[in-house]
Amino acid sequence: MSDVNQPWTQPMPESQFALMRRILDAPSPVGLEGAMTYGVLKPHFESFAPKEWQLHQFKGHAGVVLDTHPGRDDLFKVMIIGHADKIRMQVRSIGDDGKIWINTDSFLPTVLIGHEVKLFSEDPAKPGSYRIIQGGTVEALGAIHFSDPAQRDGSKGIKKEQIYLDLQIHGEDKKQQVENLGVRPGDTILLDRPIRPGFSPDTFYGAYLDNGLGCFVTAEVARLIAEAGGTEQVRVLFAIASYEEIGRFGSRVLAGELEPDVVIGVDVNHDYVAAPGIGDRRMQPLEMGKGFTLSVGSIASEQLNRIIESTAREHAIPLQRDIVGVDTGTDGMAGVLAAVDCAATSIGFPIRNMHTISESGNTQDVLAAIHVLTRSLQALDALPDPHREFLDNHPRLDEASALAHQGAAKPEEEKAEEGRHQQKHPS
Questions:
Q1: Are 79 and 38 contained in the same domain?
Q2: Residue 363 near residue 11, CB atoms below 8 Å
Q3: Above 90 in pLDDT, residue 424?
Q4: Which of 117, 122, 297, 320 is the most buried (most CB within 10 A)?
Q5: What are the backbone dihedrals phi and psi of residue 111, each rounded to the nearest 5 degrees, phi first?
Q6: Alpha-carbon gap, residue 264 to 376, rounded angstroms
Q7: In sequence order, which ranges of 88-235 are alpha helices (DSSP H)?
């Protein structure tokens, strides 16, 4: 197959896009990830996983791990992690006028105004049973006619305390009307916009690419590994974590429980080229449509990165290096946060408008991540001894070879030889 016919150079098949949409659309806010893990991914795993693979479940959260070699702690263990939890808004209080005042969590208040949402409320009479309320919008100022001049010209913004959910309540006892719906403080509110194809080729947009995309990639790598016959000396742990958006508290539990030798976090990244107003920050030019991203810095293992980068080069899979400083900002940190000795890194895909209702990405970047991870697992499986490979081959900068500088002073014997040559062969 020629390079131009590889999956990451082609449009994503409709059936694969439909799976991606189902995963991203699952209502799985922080602490309530079961809609994605048990409602979408568990049935998907069961559709292709060999009978000997096992799904790990957990008591304190709805994270899951699909395990290719359960119980085989002698094998080299690689954990690939996407996180199912989404940022969300929550009910804070109910006003006498029927306004439902809400927390904005990790959203900028200004990006929420006017958008349709879904409110998920637990039935007080039936704990554990949830209802959904649709038709409401997020508001702050009402009409422009009621805002002051500074807000009209944009010199004054909106505070998070001004954000409320409007259910169009009217009539008498408005607060009681809302309370009669069973709405209570702490109820979850999610943006209501499933992904759809974008205008430009191979693009898509919608809410919650962060981080249903990482879960989609993890699930697709699992499917490809299963279809290829699995692995022999690498035990792969396909993990779907919780609590990432509030401090990566879920993935560290998974790493602590299963003690992987390698951790690879899979998460969205930023398109810094398209990001407005940050030119003076001199960010690395990551760009949507130019391939997957690979973290360099923080706790990222140079040995692991070398295998991934070599694999990408061998198969002509486009790669962009991402400088991450002191923290990857992803579940790639799970091992060190759980005090587990493992090599780690983070893989991503540049998106625009992160933490808005119009996040956008490129399907070819996502496909590149899927296939580089699949082939990197196969490369690890082909090593003579993966354990010793990582124990014995840490980079040694004291063994770095000198790079000759053009025009640098040459050894005396080379100068003398050149002189003799010029005497015999004058120009």
A1: yes
A2: yes
A3: no
A4: 117
A5: -85, -5
A6: 11
A7: 149-152, 174-180, 209-227
